[in-house]
Amino acid sequence: MIIISQIGVPLMVIAVALQWWSRADRSHVRHACLSAGLSFLLGLAINQGILLFVHRIRPYDAGVTHLLIAPSADWSFPSDHATASTAIVAAFAMQALPRRTLALFAVAFVICWSRIFIGTHYVSDVIGGAATAAIAALAVRLAYKENSRLDAFATRLL
């Protein structure tokens, strides 16, 4: 669980990046990849705004759990790992790519569970991170339209 917690999100980012060279429905998958990246970034930005107002101590500081990794310097709510991994899943889900979404969901679920297991987050921190991710993915879905001029330019790179 420690290893999953540490390398899970970077592995998901790599998995999304590798989708760029997908042979099936290339422009749609590329749009999903860009949407996932934008959702990821927007979700983490929203989290930073939340952290300015919500100062929830981590469960190991409250004596609720025993920490299995080095302590974190920031507040507990919301979970950045949950936001990052769930934003990727939500973006792919909103692009109607069910097989990819299911595979990414399985990885995101394990990442979220690992954050609870190793003692760095409460369940509600993970749920809050997932909610932030869903909001970010929805905002990206509404703002970044497939087949727009920007999308056509961005999906033709490489």
Strand content: under 5%
Number of helical elements: 6
Largest sheet: none
Radius of gyration: 16 Å
Note the gap between the termini: 35 Å
Uncertain parts: none
Helix content: 55-70%
The sequence of SSEs as H and E is HHHHHH
- For the secondary structure, the number of strands is 0
User: What's the overall average pLDDT, rounded?
Assistant: 92
Structural class: mainly alpha
Topology:
Layout (H helix, E strand, L loop, with lengths): L1 H17 L7 H26 L28 H15 L3 H20 L5 H21 L5 H7 L3
Helix pairs in contact: 1-3, 1-4, 2-3, 2-5, 2-6, 3-4, 3-5
Provide structural commentary.
The protein is mainly alpha-helical. Helix content is 67%, strand content 0%. α2 runs antiparallel to α3 (80-94), α2 crosses α6 (149-155) and α3 runs antiparallel to α4 (98-117). The longest helix is centred in the N-terminal third of the chain and has 26 residues, at 26-51. The N and C termini lie far apart (35 Å). 39% of the residues are buried. The model has no long low-confidence stretch (mean pLDDT 92).
Briefly characterize the structure:
The chain is 67% helix and 0% strand.
